[in-house]
Model the fold of this input.
Amino acid sequence: MQTTWYLLLGLMLVTYAVLDGFDFGAGIVHLFVAKTDAERREVLGAIGPVWDGNEVWLIASGGVLVFAFPRAYSAAFSGLYLPLMMVLWLLILRGIAIEFRSKVDHPLWRTGFDGMFAFASIVMAFVLGVALGNLVRGVPLDATGWFEGELFSNFSATGVSFGAIDVYTTLVGVFALATLAAHGATYLVWKTSGAVHDRSAAMARRLWPVVLLLGAALTAATAATQPAHFAELTHRPWLWPLPVVAVAAAILCPRAIERGDEGRAFLLSCAFITGLLAATIGTLYPVLLRSTVDPRYTIDAYNAASPRATLVLGLILLLPGMALAIGYFTYLYRSFRGKVTSQDQHY
Amino acid sequence: MSAAVITGAFVVCAVAAYWALMGKHDEHARTALRIGVITGLVACMMQLFPTGDQHGKLVAQHQPVALAAMEGKFTTDSHAELALIGQPNVEERRLENPIVVPYVLSFLAYGSFGAEVKGLDDFPREQWPDNIELLYFSYHVMVGLGTILVAVMFGAALLLWKGRLMRTRAALWVLMLAWPFPYIATTAGWMTAELGRQPWLVYGLLRTSQGNSPRVSAGSVAFSTLGFMGLYTVLGLAFVFLVLRAIARGPEPTAGAESEAH
Done:
């Protein structure tokens, strides 16, 4: 039962990263690929109908975490209180920027909100990477079951002091930023036409090699920072295809764009993120929050889980909800399929 | 939910009344007033009965301490009276300058004029809500404003029925100015619920003082609270700016109005 919930949580997080990832990505690149007001409206039209729905999966993940693994939730959300508050503010700013920008026809009003949209998207992508980095690296959980979370470490390479943002997690953050930028650009290639399409294609083709390069650096850094992580991966051969799929997808994606095979390019982009995250989560299992102090203090799916009866009841309640969500997501994406046209200018 | 509908109805009425008083957008004002008043009337009636009535009885049943504090009731009585106005003096355990209606509280809480209503004196001090004065006034602001708002809606509905609403400028003035009060009443109602359940986080099981995160410092909490206050202030100002702009511009021609309402 604990494993089921761990898998569910992982599935939701991957869904979230893939879906909200492309609208973060669109926000990251939109200042560069869309220059005029009409072009920026085209970008917003591409993500407008879906971005807030995509964030449902983040909220659902938080709900699942507090429901199924309350101890992990309380330790993580207390230790990383400030970063999480800032994530909330960034998400609010992003939402305001998207919804407010086209309400007033004034060049400064619109440029201002475009900047806010880009800023919030860039920092959010970085922060999501930092969060993942913290999960892989581990946090100083002690015997009390809590940890103190400073925002910054002293950036010493040996990691003398703990901080949510240190050399390693910064690298993960930059990697996430590049990945989501490439993901978003690939999405825009698929959903737009004209100048935005051409600039997005050029940008995506440039970004994917950067992603691969950063990925290689990150692999080395992970091996150095948390040797246990890859040691675990070598024991789980059933996970090995996942990173292979991811790397292959990242290589094939820019080629698909070149060929004009846009739908496939976006699917490859999704496969890259899915493969990488699934491999990471599969390697971490059953760990939820790794302790850097002593493995005995690590919070995992077994020592953090709610009582069995709760988990069973929760599953019965969750499944219809998931089915509903998948149903309306299918309907939503079907309704807005195809490229954005000048007719659907809601933004 | 009916509180949200009431708020929406009052806002619609306020905008329509403003247009009607200015003699602008006559058709839209007429339609909006009719929809606003009828919706508002239905929601007001639902608020009184069954939702508000049921909620009061549930509080009486499950949180009798909260009820006593909300009503400013210190002594236990059968045939309990309902205090309309009065200032609770917690130190001396009495209500100052009260205006009361006899028997009504017993009836509202338990459905019988003779029912016994527990006063705060019957409960140990450590189970009292922490801030009785604030709780008492939140509750009375909510109920007081609620009663006035229901009366306003009934009056407007009567005039609408007689077909005189668009010509009765005094009523339009009242409707135009009434819109902030549902917001205040709703907020006060929220405060009543939250203050009333103190000192419990999970009623009867977990005290608020035991429910905080041990590793989050007060400074961090102050920082995040200030951050939210700042963010919401900016957001609120931008919202008011946009709404006032939309009201000043008035409705767009029908074709444009459709695409705007996305």
Remarks:
- The first strand of chain A starts at residue 287 and ends at 289.
- DSSP finds 13 helices and two strands in chain A.
- Residues 31 and 238 of chain A are 41 Å apart (CA to CA).
- Chain A touches chain B through 20 residues (CB under 8 Å).
